[in-house]
Amino acid sequence: MKKIKFLSLVTILLFVLNSCNVDDQEPVNIDYVGFVSDFAIGVDPTGTKSQDVSIYATKTKNFDRTFSINIVPNLTTASATAYSIPSSVTIPAGSNTGSFSLNAIGENIKASGLDIVVIEIKSEDKILLGEPIKLNLQQVCPYPETVLDIIFDGYGDETSWEIKDNSDTVLYSAALGTYTEGQVSASATFCLAPGTYTFTINDKYGDGLSYPANGSATITNSGTKLTEVIGDFGYGTSKQFTISN
User: Fold this and answer.
1) Residue 169 to residue 11: CA distance in whole angstroms
2) Is residue 112 very low, low, confident or very high in pLDDT (cuts 50, 70, 90)?
3) Which residues of the chain does CATH 2.60.40.1740 include?
4) Residues 85 and 137: beta-carbon distance below 8 Å
5) Quick one: which H or E segment has residue 116?
6) In Å, how far are 31, 57, 67, 122, 129 from 125, measured between CA atoms?
7) CATH of domain 146-243
8) Most exposed among 112, 186, 213, 234, judged by the fewest C-beta atoms under 10 Å?
9) CATH 2.60.60 residue window(s) in the chain
């Protein structure tokens, strides 16, 4: 009797397992639309870039399908002036993919590389929608980076500086109060095309990075020193430098 029960149990298990295998082989009939994957977009700090963002669907239809696309405000850290997107995206008839363009504006993207744009798909149709996509906007300099290194005299709060191009336009600057009393040093990185520039550094107290210790300000590009200001320059001084690479 026990043997008969055992054989019956084995038969039932084999039937169940076989049924599961058959079901697993059949395609799941789900109408799904979503983004492909998160990615980063590199933009020249002085330029713009148009980047295609793709969506895909599990089903192909014989008519155009249009979906709303929206920014997710509480997850987006980039300024609204740093990018633009359309209000919708279309998957054409006979296709299961579509795309739209995100236009990024380099000068409005923060140099920190932490600008995030999160976009979601919306639809009134009864379909399954994927998770929002996360796009990381980054400034990418097409030239070797230029670096300013400042060693303070002990009173960084007295220091301000600016870099101008040859048309006298201020490209980069640090106002009074950017640095603090007791701060030892500071660095800043710039994206500068080949050309001639003017670096101006000021000291509110008038001791020119010289009290209680001598400080300095050095600008380099690809490891080459372009100009240097040594402490004791009074209230301010300017130096020209040229980038040739």
Assistant:
1) 85
2) confident
3) 32-139
4) no
5) strand 115-122
6) 10, 13, 9, 9, 10
7) 2.60.60
8) 112
9) 146-243
Q: Contact at 8 Å (CB) between 237 and 162?
A: no
As a whole number of angstroms, the distance between CA 107 and CA 129 comes to 34
Distance CA 101, CA 111 (A): 22
What is the identity of the amino acid at 60?
T
Specify the long-range contacts of residues 235-240, CB closer than 8 Å, at least 24 apart. 235/202, 235/203, 235/204, 235/206, 235/208, 236/200, 236/201, 236/202, 236/203, 236/208, 237/200, 237/201, 237/208, 238/198, 238/199, 238/200, 238/201, 239/198, 239/199, 240/196, 240/197, 240/198, 240/199
At which residue do the structure tokens 């048309």 appear? 167
Residue 124: which pLDDT band, with cuts at 50, 70 and 90? confident
Q: In this structure, are residues 151 and 99 in contact, taking their beta carbons and an 8 Å threshold?
A: no
What digits encode the pLDDT tens for the residues 52-102? Answer: 999 999 999 999 999 999 999 999 999 999 999 999 999 999 999 999 999
Length of the chain: 245
Q: Which fold has domain 32-139?
A: Immunoglobulin-like (2.60.40)
Six-digit token string for 44: 């020249």
Q: Which two tokens stand for residue 46?
A: 């002085």
Q: pLDDT tens, 98-108?
A: 999 999 999 99
Half-sphere exposure at residue 4, Cβ-oriented, CA atoms within 13 angstroms: 1
Strands in 123-209 per DSSP E = 128-129, 133-139, 146-151, 159-164, 170-174, 185-190, 195-203
* Phi (first) and psi of residue 61, to 5 degrees: -115, 165
Judged by DSSP in three states, 73 sits in helix
